[in-house]
Amino acid sequence: MPISSEVRTTLLxxxxxxxxxxxxxxxxxxxxxxxxxxxxxxxxGLDLGMTLIDTAEMYGEGAAEELVGEAIADRREGxxxxxxxxxxxxxxxGAVEACARSLRRLKTNYIDLYLLHWRGDxxxxxxxxxxxxxxxxxxxxxxxxxxxxxxDMEEASVGRGGDKIATDQVLYNLxxxxxxxxxxxxxxxxxIPIMAYSPVGHRSAEQKRMLGHPNIRTIAxxxxxxxxxxxxxxxxxxxxxxxxxxASRPEHVRENRAALEIELTAGDIKELDKAFPxxxxxxxxxxL
Length: 288
Ligand SMILES: NC(=O)c1ccc[n+]([C@@H]2O[C@H](COP(=O)([O-])OP(=O)(O)OC[C@H]3O[C@@H](n4cnc5c(N)ncnc54)[C@H](OP(=O)(O)O)[C@@H]3O)[C@@H](O)[C@H]2O)c1
What we know:
There is one protein chain. By secondary structure, the chain is α/β, with parallel strands linked by helices. Helix content is 40%, strand content 15%. The protein is built from eleven helices and ten strands. The protein has helices at 35-47, 63-72, 92-106, 124-136, 150-158, 183-189, 204-211, 214-222, 227-236, 250-259, 266-275; strands at residues 9-11, 17-19, 22-23, 52-54, 80-85, 111-116, 140-146, 165-171, 194-197, 241-243. An eight-stranded parallel β-sheet has the order 3-4-5-6-7-8-9-10, covered by helices on one side. A two-stranded antiparallel ribbon has the order 1-2. Strand 3, helix 1 and strand 4 form a beta-alpha-beta unit. Helix 1 packs across helix 2 (63-72), helix 1 packs parallel to helix 10 and helix 9 packs across helix 10 (250-259). The chain is globular and about 55 Å long. The two termini are 34 Å apart.
């Protein structure tokens, strides 16, 4: 695979393209002894075309944003930067100030996509007002939400600026398919791409359960791939799902990028459905 090959994009409601495969950063920047290798991993991912980087003011209380700022310092224009505001900061004034702090840490003057990390007590109308102001001032290009179930999306979408919500970033992987029942159809009907977090199963116990399942292992060996790659390929077969695996090991970064080239067959999908059945009823949105 040529190193400069581009990652496919999907469209946000604003018409701006968003890469369908990016890089997460949760837990990065927390351990100084790993700083060098984490920056190197992100830069390797950028070299391989995974230009979307997902972070949050919450991660390491700003440490992840600072690390990202360093990793992208000489290549900001080629990066699609996503960060998130804490719910308790998401007031009219608080979000504007939090965004300014994020911009400082990220060493940039704009954020591509700014998300409300989860729903808190601040009225959504206030947060949306702040997001619109930030957009008018050019500090953010698009805005969206995270960890919103359908009822939250319904409510958010009717307020001023609610029709411009660009994405909902939620837990979605083979072992957590609840959103297929209602949230995905809801977003799809409005052409809102979903960002799938923890795509390979954040925690090691869950990862073992998901990636160690015999069906996924058999499919992986048929494709000369790893189970993690099958988990990613399963998400990425849907054109409007954006996956953001976090990888600090270079071999994981390379594997994740290569997952985009794997085409699962109808038979593979059937076997995966057997191992990880789709929902047959409403399941309240799960989150980490
Ligand atoms: N909005 C939210 O509330 C929310 C919540 C959770 C996550 N997120 C975002 O989504 C990103 C991804 O989610 P996550 O970090 O929870 O989980 P994840 O990306 O599913 O899993 C990360 C773990 O998987 C390992 N890994 C990565 N690629 C692998 C591969 N090819 N094979 C085997 N193991 C692999 C990583 O190891 P190494 O690091 O050692 O390579 C790390 O231990 C986060 O980093 C964050 O940016 C958002």
